[in-house]
Amino acid sequence: MVIRSPFPDVDIPDVSLTELALARAAELGDKPAFVDAPSGRAITYAELADSVRSTASGLAERGFGKGDVLAHYAPNSPEYAVAFHAVARVGGVNTTANPALTVDELTTQLSDSAARLLVTTPELLEKATAAARNAGVEEIFVYGEAGGATPFASLALAGGEPPDVPIDAAEDLVALPYSSGTSGLPKGVMLTHRNLVANICQMTAHSRADDDRVIAVLPFFHIYGLVVLMNLSLYRGVTVVTMPRFDLAQFLLAVQDYRITRAYVVPPIVLALVKHPLVDEFDLSSLEFINSGAAPLSAELEAACGRRLGCQMQQGYGLTETSPTTHWVTDEPEWQKSGSIGPPLPNTECRVVDVVTGEDVAGDAPGELLIRGPQVMKGYLNNLEATARTIDRDGWLHTGDIASIDPDGSMRIVDRLKELIKYKGYQIAPAELEALLLTHPAIVDAAVIPLPDEEAGEVPKAFVVASAPIASDEVIEFVAEHVAPYKTVRAVEIVEEIPKSPSGKILRRVLIERQRTAPNREVIHRGSH
Fold this sequence. Notes:
Strand content: 15-25%
Shape: globular
Mean pLDDT: 92
Oligomer: single chain
Distance between the termini: 42 Å
CATH superfamily of the domain at 421-517: ANL, C-terminal domain
CATH architecture of the domain at 421-517: 2-Layer Sandwich
Number of strands: 27
């Protein structure tokens, strides 16, 4: 059975993303578009549009144009939006990278995406330079100034108008974030102008007017921050207060001082808002809505947060591969239900199918959630096989998540078929950590599973078969030296054998069940978060 949105379809204009996002810039004029929370530095809508235009002209003067890729390796700031839309304005493609990536991880993304240019910060320049050299990036720009890189601001000095580049919204890419999909190593997700334009129009259909003040603590490199916080906010004409990273005290201070009305967060932030005593020291009375996404949030925690802060709690659902949003609890009171991800967005179709037979399930029985709509990606970059595994011949994207349907048409995510580990909303591919573990001379086999964790949602646990004595701490330190902090293994168990199927596939479910029946085998090492 095809499940359709209870809301009527919306019109999707045939325009580029920048045309849509900045359509009201002249009208909004001196209204702040972005404010940097630590410094208070603001950029108005008029200034943003002017900076995008002049920066795009500077990129074009360097020969950067349609189909060329620029990599963003930086935390949130108002300039992130300038760089993103300047690239989009000349028909370029934005690949967004986590600032926590190591040199090797960044090199892989730069090489795979064929990035020509890179923009970063002085603090990240050393890693960025090494990765750019490895991947053959032509030029590095830096926000501010630092030796060995071109000041990003110098691009805007070119003056003049950028070239009028024809954009085929349905075919031309604008964003290339990296995702592990339902399994495996990170892959470039090809998102067109139309994908993102469609999703913004879908999300806007049932949200209120443009008087919000939004806090952007979720990173712009992540699809949630990139589309929902940056671009949806620009289209709606709201003011976005950016934070370079999450710190609870600074987050609460920003909500208080800037009178934030809507906060987009992830479950670990909700947990802190529910349990941390520091929350009571700040005036958060301006908060009207908290939207949680990127990972499941329990109904109990959602309700507790709403009670403590006296605001409306909402969840949504999506994937990098769906630009990202497919389901959304709207602002209307009748859709407020703790634990629900809401109904499908307009123009979105869903199915819930049996994970074995692929047939539609009956009633509220759980099954794998399939999505079809204009927000579904074009495919994975240079990976037809992975694309075919994810999007079937009828255009249904297989999410790998297990969902159930409520009688009113809203949905709930009840489990995950896919093997990804969700750490504070970030995706960790077990296969990536397993491949790394096998490079250790004393490790002959390895498997990684998610370990439930109240603070992070899930953390990676490694099961290791060793050929020589090896301590858990040694394994943890070895992984930490080679991956971004959020990917670090937090617990290790030395075993005699990794359970596998006859075809050699690791039977992670066996290990997960073993963990459930004997949960006290190890101590979780917190390390860097």
